[in-house]
Amino acid sequence: MNDLKPIRNDDDYEDALLLLKQLWGAKDGSPEGDKLDILATLIDAYEAGRYPIDLPDPIDAILFRMEQQGLARKDLEPILGSRGRVAEILNRKRALSLDMIRRLHEHLDIPLDILIQPIRGRKAA
């Protein structure tokens, strides 16, 4: 394992990917398998820092969950309020309140870190 080192730049990253290909398929628990596990962790950490993935927009997340669960706008009324309020939120004309965020998290199981983000495309009040 003496050839493993931190991945600090794109050249190190390319070298790590080449080594990963060489080690791919190594048996779990073997020295090569252990090296593969460590190398995969190093690559994952580098990629997470270099190529972060943005969280989805709160409204997109709500719409996605509605589609997954076969929900209609009317089904959001107990969570968000009146029919007009639901429309304002889904049309990006009104921000989510803290209470709405809590209820959406509780009832639709949407992660809080997604719901607390600013809504994209919404003009500041």
Automatic annotation (TrEMBL):
PROSITE patterns: HTH_CROC1 (PS50943). SMART domains: HTH_XRE. It comes from the Bacteria. Residues 82-115 form the HTH cro/C1-type domain. One of its GO terms (molecular function) is core promoter sequence-specific DNA binding. InterPro entries: Antitox_HigA, Cro/C1-type_HTH, Lambda_DNA-bd_dom_sf. GO terms for biological process: regulation of DNA-templated transcription. It holds the Pfam family HTH_3. This is HTH-type transcriptional regulator/antitoxin HigA. It comes from Rhizobium leguminosarum.
